[in-house]
Amino acid sequence: MPLPPTRRRRAAAGAGLLVLVLAGCAATVPTTAGPEATDPVCAEVVLALPEDLGDGLVQQRTDAQATTAWGDPRAAVVLRCGVEPLGPTTDRCVTLETPDGGSVDWVVVEDDDGSWTFTTYGRAPAVEVQVPAAVAGDRSTSFVVDLGPAVSRTQVERSCV
Fold first, then answer.
1. What is the pLDDT of residue 92?
2. Distance of alpha carbon 105 from alpha carbon 109, whole angstroms
3. DSSP per-residue string spanning the chain
4. 39: Cβ contacts below 8 Å, ≥ 6 apart
5. pLDDT (0 to 100) of residue 100
6. Strand 92-97 to strand 103-110: parallel, antiparallel, or no bridges (unpaired)?
7. CB 87 within 8 A of CB 135
8. Which residues, other chains included, contact 82 with Cβ-Cβ below 8 Å and sequence gap of 6+?
9. In angstroms, rounded to a whole number, what is the distance separating the alpha carbons of residues 38 and 21?
10. pLDDT value for 23
11. Are 33 and 63 spatial neighbours (Cβ–Cβ below 8 Å)?
């Protein structure tokens, strides 16, 4: 038996309110897109990223193209594809083997506040991973290795020496 018009409107309004409430519970991590975020390879990278980085670092929504985040939205690990590629640098450059047998070169910078920034070296488009001090202080940053298969979709142009 169909609902009377008044009950249908109430049911529709209730369903709409439920959607708004649930959407409000899912926080979005604010970030900015890199200058080359529209590169189609960035879409491939983001789609290939893992849904979690282990130990409570579950993927979160972001508000910028070619980005994603993991963990507590107030102190999330943020990945941005399409950032400015690094030129020659004296910062520490490490080669990390990926689980699929490849490797990715990363320039690793520890900031004064205890946060870390990992930026691919010699890849286009470049990828940056920002690890806040709240995360770096509680756990190893070895999860960067798990990003390798997705980041490997970018083109290698040079490598660490």
1. 97
2. 13
3. -PPPHHHHHHHHHHHHHHHHHHHHHS-EE-----TTTT-HHHHHHHHHS-SB-STT-BEEEESSTTEEEES-GGG-EEEEEEEPPP-S-SSEEEEEE-TTS-EEEEEEEE-TTS-EEEEESSEESEEEEEE-HHHHTTS-SGGGGGGHHHHTTSEE-----
4. 66, 81, 82, 125
5. 82
6. antiparallel
7. no
8. 33, 34, 35, 36, 37, 38, 39, 42, 66, 125, 126
9. 32
10. 43
11. no
CA distances from 100 to 9, 103, 117, 141 (A): 54, 9, 23, 19
Residue with tokens 């920034």: 117
The pTM is what?
Answer: 0.83
Q: How far apart are CA 76 and CA 57, in angstroms?
A: 8
Q: Which amino acid is at 142?
A: S
Cα Rg, the chain, nearest whole Å: 20
Q: Give the pLDDT means over successive 10-residue stretches in the chain (161 positions).
A: 53 42 67 98 98 93 98 97 96 92 96 97 98 94 94 96 84
